[in-house]
Amino acid sequence: MREVTFGQYYPVSSFVHKMDARIKILLTIAYIVAVFLVKEFYFLGYAIATLFLLLACIFARVPIIKILKSIKAILFFVIFSSVLQIFFNESGNTILEWEFIKITDIGLYKAGFITLRIVLIVMGTSLLTLTTTPVELADGIESLLSPLKLIKFPAHEFALIMSIALRYIPTLMDETDRIIKAQKARGADFESGNIFKRAKALIPILIPLLIGSFRRADELADAMEARCYTGAKGRTKYKKQRITYRDILGLLAVALVLFGICATNGWVNPNWLIVLPI
User: Which pLDDT does position 3 carry in this prediction?
Assistant: First the structure.
């Protein structure tokens, strides 16, 4: 559990780390949309999205292994989605058939594409949290949601809740790991038996974890009150958010990714491109 990197910040000086948090949030959303736009069985579209993610990791100076570890948190969901596509898809040529189980080539292709899509999305969002501090992330979300203040939407409070939730993901992971080790030292067994027995064995972990979570929330509330926190009213920011050339280059790069994916899907008409004579 300590190796789950989602919600953690990787402190290093890089091109992506110095980008504006608002732009990084928008680029992450655009990248997720681009991945969803890729049609099934279009390998080139996924290749473009994967190449962009690898280049982003290089410019962020974050080890690719550290980003891959973020998939551990959703590994069960990835396997479950793939199994559904493999065993419950009857279209295509049959590869293996045994009683009620039928595996086809289309089912295998769809399982691979769904797995790749989920992995790319999780890695993209993980790269956002690895290159953005919780404070910058909260300021960016608040700034993007500031127009909603006209309809009395609590943008600052919402951004604060989001940043605190992301900040405490690795903390709760570490606390869960400590509770499991303490229970194992007392003779608890979490690895033997069927799935129901393993689920029942998790009860001694969930109870102290919930108690510890409420205790941390109470301590955080006391700390905020001791520092006279009253919400967004009258608050100032130490660092001002500014758009630089890095953000412009990032926007252009994601725009090229969207254009390339739309082109591979056949949504771009070549007649739209105007070639100027040399």
Answer: 54
Asked if residue 10 lies in contact with residue 130, where contact means CB atoms within 8 angstroms, the answer is yes
Q: DSSP per residue over 88-107, as a string? A: S---S-EEEEETTEEEEHHH
Q: What is the pTM of this model?
A: 0.78
Of the candidates 234, 270, 264, the one whose C-alpha atom is nearest the C-alpha of residue 35 is: 264
Question: How do residues 253-271 score in pLDDT, each as one tens digit?
Answer: 999 999 988 888 877 765 5
Mode of pairing for the β-strands spanning 94-98 and 101-104: antiparallel
| CA distances in angstroms from 240 to 55, 132, 136, listed in the order given | 28, 15, 10
- For the cut 50, the answer to whether the pLDDT of residue 276 exceeds it is no
Beta bridge partners of 103: 96
Measured CA to CA, the distance from residue 117 to residue 124 in angstroms comes to 11
Q: What is d(CA 54, CA 40) in angstroms, rounded to the nearest whole number?
A: 21
**Average pLDDT score over the chain:** 83
Choice among 48-52, 100-104, 209-213 with the minimum mean pLDDT:
100-104
Residue-level pLDDT at 270: 53
* Helical packing angle, 245-264 and 43-60, nearest 10°: 170
| Closest CA relative to residue 141, chosen from 172, 173, 166 | 166
Q: What is the DSSP letter of 169?
A: H
Which structure tokens are listed for 141? 């979300």
Dist CA 61 CA 82 (whole Å): 31
